[in-house]
Model the fold of this input.
Amino acid sequence: MQLTQMGRTGWDPFAEMRQLQAEMNRLFDNAGVFPAAQAYPPVNLWIGDSSVVVTAELPGLSAEDVELTIREDTLTMRGERHQVEEAEHAGWHRRERPYGTFSRTIGLPFRVDPDQVQAKFENGVLEVEMQRPEADRPRKIAINGK
Done:
């Protein structure tokens, strides 16, 4: 039993509710997000003065399994992860690697020139380097003074 503010002993339903709320928050904090609900593929994005580089982790896929589309300031990656062949009498103990089609669109910090894009795929990592159009690049302006 808890001691109330008035100095009497007794049951405080609000203290019970606060304790229950704290326990529920603790449970849901540890639950996290299911891997299938996360954005796929995971990406990193680097910005330079004249280009932007995006890398994506695509384990088990090849360059032929991925399609890239660029439009002004967006990059879209599409593909399909195939289901793993399983033995006839095997039962799954744990299955965390989802399969099926995926599509992810990434907003870029500036427009890119679709004619100046280089993509390479190595060891399950896709790297796409996109150049900023010359007309959109920042220019230093000389200041004349006396």
In short: DSSP finds one helix and nine strands in the chain. The chain has a mean pLDDT of 84.
